[in-house]
Amino acid sequence: MTFKHMKLALLAATMLGSAGTAMAEDVTLTIESWRNDDLPIWQEKLIPAFEASHPGIKVKFAPSAPTEYNAVLNSKLEAGTAGDLITCRPFDASLSLYNKGQLVAIQDLPNMKNFGDVAKAAWSTDDGSATFCVPMASVIHGFIYNAEIFEELGLEAPKTVDAFFALLDKIKEDGSYIPMAMGAKDQWEAATMGYTNIGPNYWKGEEGRLALIKGEQKLTDEDWVEPFRQLAKWAPYLGDGYEAQAYPDSQNLFTLGRAAIFPAGSWEISIFNEQADFKMGAFPPPVQKEGDTCYISDHTDIGIGMNAKGPNQEAAKTFLNWVGSAEFASLYANSLPGFFSLSNETVEMEDPLAKEFVSWRESCKSTIRPAHQILSRGTPNLWNEMWNVSANVLRGAQTPEEAGETLQKGLASWYEPQKQ
Amino acid sequence: MAAEQSTRPPIRWHIAVFLAPAVLIYTAIMILPLFNTLKLALYTDAQNAQVFIGLDNFRLLFGDERWSEQFWNALGNNVWFFIIHMLVQNPIGILLAALLSSPRLRMRAFYRTAIFIPTILSFVIAGFAWKLILSPLWGVAPNLLDFVGLKGLFQPWLGKEAYALTTLALISVWQFVGIPMMLIYAALLSIPDELLEAAECDGVTGMAQFWKIKLPLVLPAIGIISILTFVGNFNAFDLIYSTQGALAGPDFSTDILGTFLYRTFFGFQLQLGDPNLGAAIATAMFLIILIGVSIYLFGIQRRLRRYQF
């Protein structure tokens, strides 16, 4: 039954895939991607810019639906019909392709020097010896606020946790707006925009994340439980019935001007720019005490690599090298505000909100979401469990300490360094 | 004809020929995949090759604390989902059918159609519509309750562990109550008038007539409905997936075997899919349904008394 469906899907994908690889005199590169939202940007801005400077190479952007991408790509790669360029999901999904010999190591491309280790980590082997995708963009977490409400109530973006809660109290006392738009129903909101948004300030970004991977820290440690305590304190400031509030509900509450603050990922910027007709501002996750180092979740989300069996290896390398250049970084970041280049080159951006987000890279230390590298390889899956317990904590169904214990118990059940 | 004169009866080829299309198609699209799924459950993926591991997947599923906990949780939720259907959907279906078959009812076709229409809606539409109705932010449910002064009763039902599964079961009841209604209605119509007239001559009328004459006559139909409900409920997936997502929140309180199977088989977010363990769950589901149907078939259906008119 289900197995049969898989077979049919594979068959269909293979046939569609082979129909796509038409050859012309020029070398034509096909890009496999899940970003079908970005089709116009590739066709109108990125590809023409590349083709103008690289005569003889044509590029075709061939995206599939985000939820189907991994399955479609895998079957195309197995059948040998995938395009020359492969858009890479971060971490294990791409690593398994590299281990199967379907992606090529590209750390020797000249422009790879433009990327730091954190940027490359998402597409490198565990020991860092090989990198197989060029990092394209990351998303940064923080809080977006309605600047008009802040002005009306005489509020200022908070720097510390105390100031943050004082601010929420003020909005709540005033009573005309919901202080913060967030729901527990879709679970990932609580984990992504809640726990891993504010958490890096407590587990000290990369330091805590790597210690967790090495087994030196546990999820029951104070540094990992305190963010849950903070999250639990948010509940009274959320809208009525937030337990059943879904992610689109939260977005609408904010863009309709009914909520003052939106715990956000930077990908919201382009959506909010379109839908909200008020001025917006943003502030990074508040620190515990004035003067503490701040940490932000600057999560590597999208990269691009090349198909090991693609017919046009040289042209593909040329393209990947171009993706690593400052020209691409600036084009991409400006066409898609909220998706930030991972390049060390300085990228000038025009969108004020995106500029605000990216400015935190200067003042704060970057880290990625803690569950994504290595720690989500086994079952139970740490990231899925984080969704669940974060939502539980937000709903008050689990105490922060219990949440930490659940996570630790699950991780320790399969991850060697955490077993003692 | 010559064939009739031979001593042996001729091979009746036409039977095989007429059966062939159905048998072949049924085998290709139902039986083979079923056995393939069973087979898949006995293998595991090691270095991109399928390796035979016997019953290890089942040992993991029932022996490992986490997997078995999830499995029993899903099964328990499934049973509750089924109980709600049996206690709410089917009695309401019978009641509606009895009302519809009342000779004094006007606009019968309208009611019949109106009650049946949700059944032909897609799960996704029903799920989405109810999600909106029950939304604490934009839904009409809080306002309607406010209207009758019962705002205090409103809860974000789909977001509370205690209520979410029951709420979903009731949504499903709303959607499918038309099916038992139609089947029972048809069964009630097929009761001959002579029988009812005879009952009236004997002084059995009204409610007594329903309980003593009509209900025993439609019992076989009720049995069929129960088994359809059972199979449908234990295969359910769409409604939960479309309203609560694959993680079946809050805190897995709405996780049923279908969503558990989906998460395991296809993976979810960073969790990579495990088709082999997924097939083991599918096999367990198949066995549960098989056992349930067998109990009904051998334990109940054979004892039902049927009446020839």
TrEMBL record, chain A:
Keywords, sorted A to Z: Periplasm, Signal, Sugar transport, Transport
Subcellular location: Periplasm
Main location: periplasm
Gene3D superfamilies reported in the protein's UniProt record: Periplasmic binding protein-like II
Any single GO BP term: transmembrane transport
Listed InterPro entries: Bact_solute-bd_prot1, SBP, SBP_1_CS
PROSITE patterns on file: SBP_BACTERIAL_1
Signal peptide: 1-24
GO (cellular component) term, any one: periplasmic space
Function description: Part of a binding-protein-dependent transport system for a sugar.
Family under the similarity heading: Belongs to the bacterial solute-binding protein 1 family.
Identification of the protein by name: Probable sugar-binding periplasmic protein
Native organism: Nitratireductor indicus C115
From TrEMBL, chain B:
GO biological process, alphabetically ordered: transmembrane transport
Keyword annotations from UniProtKB, A to Z: Cell membrane, Membrane, Transmembrane, Transmembrane helix, Transport
PROSITE patterns: ABC_TM1 (PS50928)
Gene3D superfamilies, A to Z: MetI-like
CDD domains (UniProt xref): TM_PBP2
Residues covered by the ABC transmembrane type-1 domain: 75-298
Topology of the protein relative to the lipid bilayer: Multi-pass membrane protein
Any one of the GO CC terms: plasma membrane
Subcellular location: Cell membrane
Membrane spanning residue stretches: 12-35, 79-101, 113-133, 162-188, 217-237, 277-299
Cross-referenced PANTHER family: ABC TRANSPORTER PERMEASE PROTEIN, INNER MEMBRANE ABC TRANSPORTER PERMEASE PROTEIN YCJO
Protein name (database record): Binding-protein-dependent transport system inner membrane protein
